[in-house]
Amino acid sequence: MNAPLINIKDISFDYEQTKALDHISLKVEEGDFLAILGPNGSGKSTLLKIMLGLIKPTRGSIELFGQDAKDFKHREWIGYVSQKSNSFNSGFPATVEEVVAGGLAKKSGLFHRFPKDYKESVGEALEAVGMESFRDRSVSELSGGQQQRVFIARALVAKPKVLILDEPTVGIDHQNVQSFYDMLASLNREKGITLVLVTHDVDTVTDKITHVACLNQTIHFHGYKNQLDSMSDAQRKAWYGHSVRK
Ligand code: ADP
Ligand code: MG
Are 35 and 226 in contact (CB under 8 A)? Predict the structure, then answer.
């Protein structure tokens, strides 16, 4: 069997004043669509930053694609769309194409270089998120949901194997959330991209995901999403603070 793409082994993380994560172990296998649920402040964003190597755990270790994270050289295999990445100030001048192409830019001295075939790559990424007809539009004219799709395209353009998304539906109109998750499900099922998603949209997302992890400083549940159905209401309340759909 192939190694897990992400293997978190008994990690903890403390900010100066706060214990954010306490003895977390979690595996993400190729093809998974994992939703990480948990109340505000439960350490979800911190866990994603650790997966990305943006911060180092206080204790424990991480393997990426079977390698110790310290030795892992293929950061472009793991794409990331951070929390609130779609909240632009209104004067943002760039076009959709420019924003997406930014995901391919390599810095050389003062300049950014783009690969020769970048137009084609940008087109493919926009198509994958259903935004190809918006290519020449200014990003600032788009709705929150459209901007979020552009940011996902910016992450996809580098052809990651795993895409990590932190609360991507914040700022998306309620009636557009379902189609947003349909788009994520097609990235997972048709393009074979492994997805790790932090969200509060428990009801909308349960039909799309394969796995769920319930976090509150530590992992209270991690497994196939259908096992969630067999949890008692009391267990749900313990990890999530309120009941969720059965
Ligand atoms: P979530 O994403 O689940 O809302 P976070 O991972 O952002 O939670 O935060 C977990 C805990 O760590 C919270 O108590 C939060 O206040 C604290 N925290 C987050 N970021 C920082 C930081 N940069 N400095 C200090 N404490 C932080
Ligand atoms: Mg967060």
Answer: no
